[in-house]
Amino acid sequence: MSSNMVHIGGYLAKPEGFAANRLPGAVAAVPAGSVNEVARDFLEDVNFPEYVASLIEGVFQAIVDASVKQMDAYGELLQSVAKTVDQFVQDQVSDGKGRDWLLATYPNLFERVDGSGCLRLRPGVNVARAISRLRFLPVEGELDQFDSGAIEAKLVPAARRRLATSRQQLLATMVMMGVQRSVSGRRRV
After folding, report:
1. Which residue of 8, 29, 38, 72 shows the fewest CB atoms closer than 10 Å?
2. How confident is the model at residue 12 (pLDDT cuts 50, 70, 90)?
3. What distances in angstroms separate CA 189 from CA 62, 65, 71, 183, one per listed residue?
4. Of 20, 11, 4, 21, which is closest to residue 42 (Cα–Cα)?
């Protein structure tokens, strides 16, 4: 392998002076004794040992850098999962996302108020049925009316909390799967 590398390096350095019978496709021919000189000159010009050392160091450094970035991202993921639900809601789920979730989850109950982005109960919706459909939301206090103030004060925060809880549970599952993969990967090694 090293002999072939020397021949190829010699050809790359001086293709016009390389023995055609040593490298398939080479068209130039030189006396056999000068091939060693060409290869030696090439290795001296390139400083092959330093080149290989820097190549290995570069690959190793790229692997280390990638591992550090991966660990930083994993650390951020752990910080997000370790927050309380209230902190997670505050940092990750806006009022707008809560409204969007309510509208997507209960399209027959809510509609947007023109221009404001807020929600209101659709005309003709039975309030008692709407309240029974929303019983799974973590609403603080009683939900007995559906004016825009009650929707903004009670339902949007409840939707944000529900959305944040689902996301945080998903992230926790991802963390556990990552730990399992890491542990099982080490067992195989």
Report:
1. 72
2. low
3. 22, 22, 20, 10
4. 11
Q: Backbone phi, then psi, for 111, in 5-degree steps?
A: -145, 160
Would you tell me how many other CB atoms lie within 10 Å of the CB of residue 154?
Answer: 20
Measuring CA to CA, how many Å separate 101 from each of 121, 150, 187? Answer: 15, 17, 42
Q: What is the pLDDT of residues 102-149, one digit of tens each?
A: 999 999 998 888 877 888 888 998 888 888 888 778 888 777 677 767
The DSSP output letter for 106 is -
Tracing tokens 């195989």 back to the chain, one arrives at 188
Res. 28: pLDDT tops 60: no
Q: 148, 120 in Cβ contact below 8 A?
A: yes
Q: What whole-number distance in Å separates Cα of residue 138 and Cα of residue 166?
A: 13
Question: Which segments of 106-188 does DSSP mark as H helices, in order?
Answer: 127-133, 148-150, 156-188
Beta strands in 20-169 (DSSP E): 110-112, 119-121
Q: Which long-range contacts (CB under 8 A, 24 or more apart) does 38-43 make?
A: 38/10, 38/13, 38/14, 39/6, 39/7, 39/9, 39/10, 39/13, 41/13, 41/14, 42/9, 42/10, 42/12, 42/13, 42/14, 43/6, 43/9
- No. of helices (H) and no. of strands (E), the chain: 8, 2
H or E stretch covering 43: helix 33-46
Write the pLDDT tens digit of every residue in 120-130.
Answer: 888 998 888 88
